[in-house]
Amino acid sequence: PALGLFLFTIARDPLRIIVLIAGAFFWLVSLLLSSLIWFIAVKASNPLDEPLQKGLLIFGVMFSVLLQEAFRFLYYKLLRKAIEGLVALSEDGCSPISIQQMAYVAGVGFGLMSGAFSMINLLADTLGPGTVGIHGDSQLYFLTSAFMTMVLIFLHTFWGILFFHGCEHQHWWEITAVIVMHLAVSGLTFCNPLYVGSLVPSYLLMATAATWAYLLSGGSAQNLQRFLLCKS
Q1: pLDDT band at 155 (very low <50, low <70, confident <90, very high)
Q2: How far apart are CA 146 and CA 155, in angstroms?
Q3: Residue 155: partners with Cβ closer than 8 Å, 6 or more residues away
Q4: Are 106 and 164 contacting, i.e. CB atoms less than 8 angstroms apart?
Q5: What count of other Cβ atoms lies within 10 Å of the Cβ of residue 196?
Q6: Is the preceding omega at residue 193 within 30 degrees of 0, hence cis?
Q7: CB 118 within 8 A of CB 145
Q8: Which stretch of DSSP H or E encloses residue 180?
Q9: Which DSSP symbol is given to 189?
Q10: Hey, which end of the chain has fewer CB within 10 Å, N or C?
Q11: Residues 6+ apart with CB under 8 A from 146
Q12: Average pLDDT over residues 135-162
């Protein structure tokens, strides 16, 4: 699905590709900084203290979420300046790409990079001989991880639309909602290996974010009905 989003909505437009790559870079920098801070915290603590290490892991995840959203805000500011520059250079005084389109493409960029790193970690666990679940663990680990990666890609896309809309119209409660949903989905991963406890709420949040983003983008039930019925 994520590849389809890229091929059908982004790949044909060079400007959108640039926005996507820049968004992926911003997400990557946020991950690098949060990983560095978590690594320093772990090295400075007692590795034999299991409750402390678990607390540091939770802190690292939550701090990473907040840092990602901070970089999303910085990226919005950068894109807003870019639009002003494009308008100034344009002959007709219009930007070739709207802030709504940038929000979508930036969200896809965040999501694709997040998914890529999730898949790298997943594939790293498959190296070497062995059988999934041989020690009594769930045999659905790789399947559920793939579904979790997909939901995170879509969520980042919808969060990008919601976050940029909140910044553009100064609806700070929309920005807060994005941060809360991001923290909630990340926190749900601690329910694993009880995968139902993480996947089901995450997909419900994705459906909520998708509906919200669709309405903010100008969508309506009538438009959706026409699309499903293939009517113009």
Answers
A1: very high
A2: 14
A3: 111, 181, 182, 185, 202, 205, 206, 209
A4: yes
A5: 9
A6: yes
A7: yes
A8: helix 172-188
A9: G
A10: C
A11: 122
A12: 86
DSSP 8-state symbol, 149: H
DSSP string, 93-134: S--SS-HHHHHHHHHHHHHHHHHHHHHHHHHHHT-SS--TTT
- Separation between Cα atoms, residue 125 and residue 202, nearest integer Å: 23
What pLDDT, in 10s, does the model give residues 35-66?
A: 999 889 888 888 878 888 888 888 889 999 99
What's the CA gap between 42 and 104, in Å, rounded?
Answer: 36
Q: Which amino acid belongs to residue 89? A: L
Determine contact, residues 212/181, Cβ cutoff 8 Å. no
Selection from 102, 108, 103, 129 nearest residue 15 by Cα: 102
Average pLDDT value over all residues in the chain: 87
| pLDDT recorded at residue 232 | 62
Highest mean pLDDT among 51-65, 83-97, 171-185: 171-185
Tokens 């949060």, residue located: 34
Closest listed residue to residue 73, CA positions, set 188, 160, 135 = 160
Residue 26 banded pLDDT, cuts 50, 70, 90: very high
Residues in contact with 56: Cβ distance below 8 Å, sequence separation at least 6, in sequence order: 38, 41, 42, 45
Q: What is the largest CA-CA distance in the chain?
A: 66
CB 71 within 8 A of CB 29: yes
> Where does the pLDDT of residue 120 fall: very low under 50, low under 70, confident under 90, or very high at 90 and above?
confident
